[in-house]
Design a protein that fits this description.
single chain, Heat Shock Protein 90, Ribosomal Protein S5, domain 2, 5 domains, nine-stranded mixed β-sheet, five-stranded mixed β-sheet, 22 strands, 36% helix
Length: 654
Amino acid sequence: MQRKSKEKNLQPHGTPPANANHVSYDAKDIYVLEGLEPVRKRPGMYIGSTGPDGIHHLVWEVVDNSIDEAMAGFAKNIIVELLPKNRVSVTDDGRGIPVDVHPQTKKSALETVLTTLHAGGKFGGESYKVAGGLHGVGVSVTNALSEWLRVEVCRGGELSMQEYVRGKPEAKVKKIGTCRNTGTKVIFSPDPQIFLKIEFDAKRILERLRQQAYLTKGVRIYFFDSRTSPPAAYGFYFEGGLLSFVTHLGRGEKLLQGEPFYVHKEQENVEVEATMLYVDDLETKELSFANNIHTPDGGMHLTGFRSALTRSLNTYARQEGYLKEKDENLTSEDAREGLLSIVSVKLREPQFEGQTKARLGSPEARTAVETVVNEGLKEFFEKRPHEARRIIEKVLLAAKARRAAKAAKDTVLRKGALNGLTLPGKLADCTSRSPAESELFIVEGDSAGGSAKQGRDRRTQAILPLRGKILNVEKARLDKMLANQEIRNLVVAIGTAIADEFNIEGIRYHKIIIMTDADVDGAHIRTLLLTLFYRYFPKIIEQGYLYIAQPPLYRIQQGKEAHYAYNDHEKDRVVKGFKGASAPLIQRYKGLGEMNPEQLWETTMNHEKRVLKQVVVDDAAEADRLFRILMGDEVVPRRQFIQAHAGSVKHLDI
């Protein structure tokens, strides 16, 4: 019926229906945004978002310009400083941005660079043979989205300066003194009209600067956080480049190679640098860069590396008899298990997908990397047969495990999660079939599960009790993991399947809530579940669907008046608030099972009163490292971590 009513409104030759509102659409209605207006109008198009990522992107754009000067061989020192009042300063000793009048714009070259999109020294000529900021919108975007920006240039013995307010110059470039060397200093503060919350993360900036120091041999990068007193200071300088980088990634791991693979060579005008190191682990860690710009989504250079690695391993395995004629080839998945790898390319005209440069699309990068890595691995295997044997044995074991895991998935999952058949018997499901309003409480033990089932909102809240501690998946392969009944129940209940069959669209609950006791065992179970979700359901965390319930620690009652406290500070505050001669009765909950259904609902499950902590991953690399240390096989790194942090423990259940 709705379709028919629409068709009745159609008029021949595009004539609007008689009852349509007349909206002006003439030449005067075509808007032309000039200068930096497009950036302020649609900041997300240029920096990805106006959240924390966008705030830090402003820093990256300025730092990348200094790194480009270093890659061109003109800068040796870069200083980044976080200042009070949300200001950031970036200084380099490169050539300094030109300040003379630009023949085309009739303004100084400095003002042209800072106020004109797609203006810079990276589009032609020999100023930059290789650069990351090839879109030419970098520092101009930072200027556009800054409440205030000041740039100082030391060039030709003269120190020049210009200030801007929301992208517009306050005055022309002026000389403010003399100087001996050359370089550029940019100070800016993000605009609160664009960004709702302005807060720079020193740790995040440090990681980025360390990364850039690894990628640019010979450059010294200094970082100061002057928001604290005394200021925190760091310095980075790595002569080993990517070799130092991959060694850094492998710290705390059980290495399978005595020496990392490394190759650095130019191929068809593309400079290729690649390194890799196998560790005794199941996870893969791959980093890729193009002109020193991190490409988190990979691209042609990473594709070329993966292809060369898989082909080289298959060739060597067949030559040396590890693979027989009847055996199937090793897959890319096999080749990358336990692999730490870094690929960096430098090329003249890189094609990035989007201004945030998350993926490299240059086809020549794939060809160059594939050729260089193929040749490099052939030589590496020939010169180091013992290393080659250990790598091949690791990869063959991965292939065997892959086949076993596939068989396990076929038998365990296809009749459950994948076809939507029998849900676990222990699952007390909700009646709603809308994932957006449905919640799954993962509860420790049958006792707490019974209270939760009785106290819940049956329409929107499902309960899945777990018996004891689930398997530590950090130490187990997929086939062994799927043999665990508790994990199978959880996988089927969630509805997304797992591993290759994982599909976030199949999720049955948009809130998955871990609800465990507030003691050591409860914390351990919570950690085991977090490990499972982080390793096998990362998209559930990324989508914001995973939570941790916060049950109260205390129930404080005096007479008929009762209050709950979630920590010792709240308990003390509640106790002080009571009036009367008799001391209040304080009950310390050790487990959820001690609460009756009404108490559990009132404190932990009621939408209006409960406290939930959403699980997020701000730093994937650091989270990955901590999960390996705390949940992996190696005892020594875990003992060292405990010894290092024992003094800072605030709450210990003994």
